[in-house]
Write a sequence for this structure.
């Protein structure tokens, strides 16, 4: 068996992995995820480009992690839902596979594409591809960052002494945390204290 | 209540209001004003001797004005802290020479007219906002005659009337003549589900509260006729439907239709005109007493606290959670949580559940005793810094210090920096790099977006907290808008550098949108003021060099304004269509020459 030396990875070049998530049919019904993944595979620096049914699922994350390890990926584009939802998920996933969590970017193909251009598959697909390319441009420029830790005061301020404020204060205090409970009236109790019987069990409120 | 009052770990501050919140997650500094009680709450035993001699009689708020109290009083028998207080505005003895009868009889000497408001500063790691609700005031619904007719009550007034500890000790009587009513009517959705008066939302609890009230009446006075006028009965919770069925079985009549008018008869009863939607006929009902099932409004302090803490509100005026399903008790600001009706109308069970959840979220954040901070902060590029001091001027957190006189480069305190990026956008010398949102990272997105057919695209910058979230909300609501809109996310609109705009136009963008939180709602205190100033500045320059200023739009879109986002995008598309290929070419020509 002849041994051919593997192509040398160029250290300074970005090694990007791109994952286009179907989110079941949430994205895939308005966006041609497979086509995008194929097109993106040709982009310079993209080592892997795949479409994936649920990127956030356990098998989805496992597959991405394995790709990172097998291919030495150093940055990722996850084209799926809003980063406001799953950015923490994918940051943790990257970290677990040895990639700095700040080397990940998300293209928002669900909230800001498939769900808002539902009957416009061609244009939604074109837009999605542009969004993925924009994210690739961004990840090329990303730099690893490191979180810092700060001291924290283990104490809670509860504003409002109605039933919710009282319950929150008691749960915290019983768990060993100091609480300051601020109430604008002269007594705690709020509106609940004014009520006699409560539904559905008709028991007393105080 | 008493558990909370005597818990060694709970410091209870009543008659107190939060007036300022500074700092960030883990390290908030809260200023509280505690108003003078004029009675030492630690030594008062609530014996009540003082109130007996007090000559000032006032309506009792706890009993909704159906009873009376003195100027020195305990809010209600089970009050916590169990201490009297003086309403200084009502008290004659504030000048002790005038009265001071209470001082004379107080054996323990608890009363002190010289007490003054106290300012307290608390340092805390997390904050739970549980500011509750305000019952809707139905006075404006003139057709129901509340305040005009004595025997028209709100549900909370009715509650006090049938309460064993209330002004009548639970005896159901009419306010006008103290007779027992033979018939009681309930009108549902008062201030709820209305496009014109109160809120357009369902207040959640009024149906069940009325069903409960019907029970209380029927249990004590089986002969009293009870009629409920409703749109639909929403008995959606565990055990609710059962209670509703039992209420019907006990004889409460449910009449589908909200009354159009209420008139008072000679004997103080009420004549209610209603179109019964089940039969399609106009009916008149004469009732001895009428109860208005008032809806819930956000507490009056909601907006003030929202401004102090930089929180977001829904269009209904309740606090907006970070995510409606996955983070239902978190505020978008880390370290702040919601509990109870502050977040939206809910019943006691739900409020308690949410409060426990909020406590758990707070513990989850605090238990390690330290917190991780995001490294999304600004960095000074020392070689380029000219020590002009602009960055220190614009930083909302005073996180940058510059010694302008000594020409020493700026220094960032990264613990105080919240990462808005306004300094980086305002620096004329490109001497500040905003980590994770660098010029190169953002321009990479602009360049890529405009690389192919730029004339067909809309370039939009959106801040993470409001506008980008508003775009997500449009998505969740499936609001459709043109597919040529491409959003670039920044943490704050204050990050949108002038050069991004010029470069966008130079590369052929027909229109550009900068969007952020409404003025006053900025997640970074007031960084969006600089966005506004910057856009004004660019507009002036555009005019000067011969570009139509309206091609750059500035729009404030909150996280709850999905509709506004979609509408703005449609407007941007109309604007884009007004930009011709020649205009774009000319713009590119002008900007390349500059």
């Amino acid at each position: 068996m002849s041994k051919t030396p593997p192509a040398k990875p160029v250290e300074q070049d970005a090694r990007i992995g791109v994952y286009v998530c179907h989110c079941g049919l949430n994205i895939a019904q308005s966006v041609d995820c497979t086509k995008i993944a194929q097109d993106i595979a040709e982009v310079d620096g993209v080592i892997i480009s795949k479409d994936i049914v649920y990127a956030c699922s356990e098998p989805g994350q496992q597959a991405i992690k394995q790709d990172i390890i097998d291919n030495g990926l150093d940055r990722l584009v996850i084209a799926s839902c809003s980063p406001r939802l799953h950015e923490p998920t994918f940051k943790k996933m990257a970290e677990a596979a040895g990639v700095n969590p700040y080397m990940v970017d998300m293209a928002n193909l669900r909230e800001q594409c498939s769900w808002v251009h539902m009957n416009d598959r061609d244009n939604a697909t074109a837009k999605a591809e542009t969004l993925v390319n924009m994210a690739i441009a961004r990840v090329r420029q990303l730099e690893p960052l490191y979180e810092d830790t700060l001291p924290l005061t283990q104490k809670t301020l509860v504003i409002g002494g109605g039933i919710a404020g009282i319950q929150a204060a008691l749960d915290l205090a019983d768990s060993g945390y100091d609480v300051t409970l601020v109430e604008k009236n002269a007594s705690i109790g709020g509106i609940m204290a004014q009520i006699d019987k409560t539904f559905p069990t008709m028991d007393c409120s105080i | 209540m008493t558990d909370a009052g005597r818990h060694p770990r709970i410091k209870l501050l009543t008659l107190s209001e939060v007036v300022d919140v500074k700092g960030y997650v883990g390290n908030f500094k809260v200023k509280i004003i505690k108003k003078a009680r004029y009675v030492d709450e630690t030594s008062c035993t609530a014996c009540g001797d003082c109130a007996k001699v007090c000559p000032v009689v006032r309506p009792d708020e706890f009993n909704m004005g159906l009873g009376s109290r003195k100027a020195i009083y305990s809010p209600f028998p089970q009050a916590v802290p169990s201490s009297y207080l003086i309403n200084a505005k009502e008290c004659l003895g504030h000048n002790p020479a005038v009265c001071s009868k209470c001082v004379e009889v107080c054996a323990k000497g608890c009363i002190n007219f010289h007490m003054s408001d106290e300012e307290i500063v608390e340092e805390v790691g997390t904050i739970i906002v549980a500011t509750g609700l305000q019952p809707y005031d139905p006075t404006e619904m003139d057709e129901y005659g509340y305040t005009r007719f004595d025997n028209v009550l709100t549900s909370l007034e009715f509650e006090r009337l049938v309460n064993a500890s209330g002004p009548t000790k639970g005896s159901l009587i009419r306010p006008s003549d103290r007779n027992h009513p033979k018939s009681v009517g309930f009108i549902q959705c008062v201030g709820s589900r209305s496009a014109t008066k109160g809120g357009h939302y369902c207040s959640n609890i009024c149906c069940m509260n009325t069903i409960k009230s019907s029970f209380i009446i029927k249990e004590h006075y089986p002969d009293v006729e009870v009629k409920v006028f409703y749109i639909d009965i929403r008995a959606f919770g565990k055990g609710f439907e059962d209670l509703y069925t039992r209420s019907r079985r006990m004889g409460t009549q449910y009449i589908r239709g909200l009354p159009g008018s209420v008139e008072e008869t000679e004997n103080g009863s009420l004549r209610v005109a209603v179109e019964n939607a089940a039969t399609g006929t106009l009916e008149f009902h004469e009732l001895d007493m009428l109860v208005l099932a008032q809806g819930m409004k956000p507490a009056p302090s909601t907006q003030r606290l929202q401004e102090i803490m930089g929180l977001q509100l829904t269009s209904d005026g309740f606090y907006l959670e970070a995510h409606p399903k996955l983070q239902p008790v978190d505020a978008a600001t880390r370290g702040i949580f919601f509990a109870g009706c502050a977040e939206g109308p809910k019943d006691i069970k739900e409020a308690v559940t949410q409060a426990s959840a909020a406590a758990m979220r707070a513990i989850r954040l605090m238990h390690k005793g330290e917190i991780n901070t995001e490294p999304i902060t600004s960095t000074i590029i020392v070689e380029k810094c000219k020590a002009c001091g602009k960055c220190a001027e614009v930083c909302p957190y005073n996180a940058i210090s510059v010694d302008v006189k000594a020409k020493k480069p700026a220094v960032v305190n990264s613990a105080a920096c919240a990462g808005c990026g306004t300094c980086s956008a305002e620096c004329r010398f490109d001497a500040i790099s905003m980590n994770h949102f660098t010029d190169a990272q953002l321009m990479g997105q602009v360049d890529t977006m405009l690389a192919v057919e730029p004339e067909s695209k809309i370039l939009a910058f959106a801040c993470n907290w409001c506008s980008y979230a508003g775009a997500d909300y449009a998505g969740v609501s499936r609001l459709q808008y043109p597919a040529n809109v491409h959003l670039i996310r920044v943490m704050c609109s204050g990050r949108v550098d002038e050069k991004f705009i010029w470069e966008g136009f130079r590369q052929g963008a027909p229109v550009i949108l900068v969007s952020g939180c409404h003025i006053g709602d900025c997640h970074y205190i007031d960084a969006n003021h600089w966005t506004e100033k910057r856009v004004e500045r660019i507009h002036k320059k555009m005019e000067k060099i011969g570009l139509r200023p309206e091609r750059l739009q500035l729009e404030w879109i909150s996280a709850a304004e999905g509709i506004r986002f979609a509408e703005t995008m449609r407007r941007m598309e109309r604007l884009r269509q007004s930009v011709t290929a020649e205009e774009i070419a000319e713009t590119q020509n002008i900007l390349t020459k500059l």
User: Anything to note?
Assistant: The CA atoms of residues 107 and 130 of chain A lie 9 Å apart.
